[in-house]
Amino acid sequence: MVEMSKRDIEIEGNARFYSVGLLTFYTVALALVMLPSILLWRSGELWPVQWIVTDQSATGAIWSAGLVADEGGYKRALVKAHRPQVVVAGSSRVLGIRRDAFNVPFINFGRGFDAVNFDRDLLRLADLAQPKILLWGIDHQLPARRYQNLLMAYRGKAGKLDQSNVDGAFFPEIIPRSVMTIWGLLVRQQISPIGTLSVILRGAYFEGPRLGLRANLGNLGGYGADGSYHYLDAFARPRTALDKLTVALKKMRESTARDQDSISPQTMDRIQTTVEGLQRRGITVVLFLTPLPSQHPVTEHERAYLADLRRELSSISENTMALFFDYLDAHAIGVQDKEFIDATHAGEVAMLKLLGDIGKHSEAVRRVLRTAHIEGVIERHSGEATLTSPLYRELGLKRLEPVP
Amino acid sequence: MVFSTYDFLFFFLPICLAVSLFLRHLGFFRSYIASIVLFSFLFYAFWNPNYLWILGISIFFNYLVGVYAYRTREFPVLILGVSANLLLIGYYKYKLFFGGIANDLLGTSFTLGHVILPLGISFFTFQQIAWLVDCWQGKAKERDFLSYSLFISFFPQLIAGPIVHHAEIMPQVTRSLVNSNIRSDLTIGLSIFIVGLAKKVLIADRLAPFADYMFASAVDGQPVGMLGAWSGVSAYALQIYFDFSAYSDMAIGLARMFGIDLPLNFNSPYKAHNIQDFWRRWHMTLSRFLRDYLYFPLGGNRHGQLMRWRNLMITMLLGGLWHGANWTFVFWGGLHGLYLVAFRSWLWTKQRFGVDIAFPTFVGVGLTLFFVVLAWVPFRAESFAASLDIYAQMFGIAGATSSDWMSEGVIYGVPETIARGVFAGAGANAFMSGALVQLGLISLALMIALTLPNTAEIFSRFFSPADGSVAGNAWSALRLRWAPSMIWLLYIAGIFVICVIFMRRQAPFLYFQF
After folding, report:
1. How far is A15 from chain B (nearest CA, A)?
2. Which of left, alpha, beta for A228 (phi over 0: left; psi -120 to 50: alpha)?
């Protein structure tokens, strides 16, 4: 015979109401938190980067995170999984270089390093991947004094604000972003309940294999299995505080060379030290200045800055015996403005022209290039920003119109 | 995994409860116990799966030794078991500390390497030492390895206590198997848990930035001035109070969801009338362990005043060292030892010379709180030098006063930022608005600590501490007693909603580091 303990409440009357009420409350809270969690999980947003890399290898999915994108970790996981013989490193401006151009394993490490600590990250990459060739695309603003300061200031600000959501709203503390983001998007009708349900049930809102919240809920594109970026025809996002901040930052970056800036000797020293470090590891290093559309340079000061930059990089090239190519003026190798995706990023056809040119001057690079493929693509698609691939068709891509 | 996180509250806990209680409901009692053990190991693995083996091996070894010690009652068996536990904790917790001392004393430069302290090692090691002693004395007996695993690894008290005796817990597990009032246990447990959650999320975590900033400033050598130092130390004193109180409540609430009442570990220590009373209220199960397994074996108070003072000092110094392998903790323990010696001396003097002086309660509480707050300085400071620097600032010995001690350096949360905005709208400058927010929070927390009844008192009708202790204080402004009523549902549910909104992702309990 079991007796009821004196410490128990009797489940009747008010006590029953309390008990059911509290457990119901907890269950409702649980549901409110769990629903976004399920959605995030189904979309691949919460997956470890190793899972993403494995899934991409199997399905060819694109990946674009909406909450916190650990792009460095993701790119290192790609490198670790594929052991590439050729790696291209740099900012988002090199992301148009794809695996198709090479006849050996290749990974695009664009945005894989921290622009402030590029030396540390590139040597780490070299130790991890031990590639034979490293193509390092250097943006014209990288060694600018103001750019480095700006990056550090921005990072401090972003750290304090605890980063941002896919919808651009800041939630530094109240409710985890993972939960609030989804409900925020739903309340603002930026995604439909049916669309959300679609992601939960099918794992995607749009067509095709996609991983990450941004890839699933915003048709903006994402990283392919080789680490290069696929730009999709996106619906316009509303201008949020983050968008405005990003645009302002972009403008400031673009104007870095135009207003009173100068080259940081310390950064140039770090570039040289990094090249030497890479070469000591037996890697063939190819430096190139990433291409710009024809409107650059526009001011005298910028011309002077770019001239300094070319001179300094040539000097590094001479000191280290690394190859150096200047593609700031991309028209010299036949790149047209309409082959740029936007005012900053050259498309894949432009990048193939760039690779073809490097191959003409470097036997080591020529050996790893699919020269016939590159020439064929250039012949057929010159003047286009992007190429239509089976992946794009699967993803429901509408071809990008050239930038006017 | 921290109790006050979404991962725990909305992922781990519901799954763990659903699986284990379903097994219990079906009558699969061994599976029920096995499921709790499994979830407890999973809980531990969330921190660092690489150290699961330490917990596993420790449990297995102590189980074998305990069973053998009970059977043979041989002292060398006990010594073997206790020594192995001390070696384990010595390696992981004290290797660098004592190795550094040895290098300094001998003038050597042995490489000591880097050791990551396994979470909760101080707690599960001490609990198992107590188990071994109890077995050797014939007080504890456990033949079932699964039950013993549950006794040690039970996740509500695995990481930061309370340090429990076998006899306090295991009979309750057996009872809970046949007592099927799951809804009652869930309701009471969840209510207690939510009160603890509120202490953590709404008080302790809100005070943390102020304390962190002040102690970080001391490390950086930036003076914060007398007011800044007192404010920062007070913030820490209240942060650790509510943090540990919250953990204790949440542990009790969680255990109750499984039908188990843990012993009381925290009983409004800032209401203590004297320092001895403080140690009967703060981390009660550690005090009990140190008393039973250190102070008494040393002789306790049986051989005169001098020996009592010596034993008190040794116990408190080792108690300090238990908290961390650093001279600052030893100093903290030493300070408390001195406080206790001074208090015992005062009692002895009163008795010896027939002095009949009785201070009002508030004087005793105030003095005790003052000295306890002073002792928190070395406990929290990064180094002994930083402690001295803070003391110098607290007593006006240090130089300049910085004016930004509560404006620019502190990272404010959303409610504090809003409050600052309100003060700024009323004309306060950045310094004043920061000061008002910080002092307001500290005052509010102090009021709560000193005037409101504690959780055990609030739930006293439905919670009986496993050690038989009774929560009770001479005075509380309000006589709050929980009952399963509509008004309490509104209170608890309201608190829960606010906590869920303000829960932070990374705010571990302070006692996790010990």
Report:
1. 5
2. beta
